[in-house]
Amino acid sequence: NAGVMQNPRHLVRRRGQEARLRCSPMKGHSHVYWYRQLPEEGLKFMVYLQKENIIDESGMPKERFSAEFPKEGPSILRIQQVVRGDSAAYFCASSPWDGTVNSPLHFGNGTRLTVT
Amino acid sequence: AQTVTQSQPEMSVQEAETVTLSCTYDTSENNYYLFWYKQPPSRQMILVIRQEAYKQQNATENRFSVNFQKAAKSFSLKISDSQLGDTAMYFCAFMGLASGTYKYIFGTGTRLKVLA
Question: Is the pLDDT of residue A82 over 60?
């Protein structure tokens, strides 16, 4: 059973460009979370999605950031008009969420975004 | 809002010794889950141990155990017989059930270095 797949592993964008980060959850997982990790900091919650549904986006900046998890295909975190402050590691995690502690988050290897 | 505090930014321990990492959290909920995740230099987030709040018995996983004090809202991680491979960032995480959004809140992490 393949783990959570994130691509690309590294992404370099110039200021003003768009960044698209992809996440394929583990097979059978219907819940996807996106977290941002700044250098030497912890994980900051951004958004939590189920298929075709945003459940909680309280951690997403109001502008330039969006996320989706379509019925088919990976979850996408999209950052428009990137700025240097967007440089960070972005982690995706998935969960089958059966309502118990037996369904913890499984993380991908992250995408390191560098804005030049 | 729930918060998770890890008051030790860095710690070190001699190989084969025991070390305890502290974590406190703030919540008004009675039913929730707690986790410890490890992030080695590879950046992969790895689940170390999990605890259900309604269980009084402390969770153990081989050399890893927790001291869960619900009244004090404390959830410390003890690593026995430390090994060089335990060198990593350790994150404490809280997941509450009352809100229905199942959002995981992470602490800022403790960088553990195991010395040979």
Answer: yes
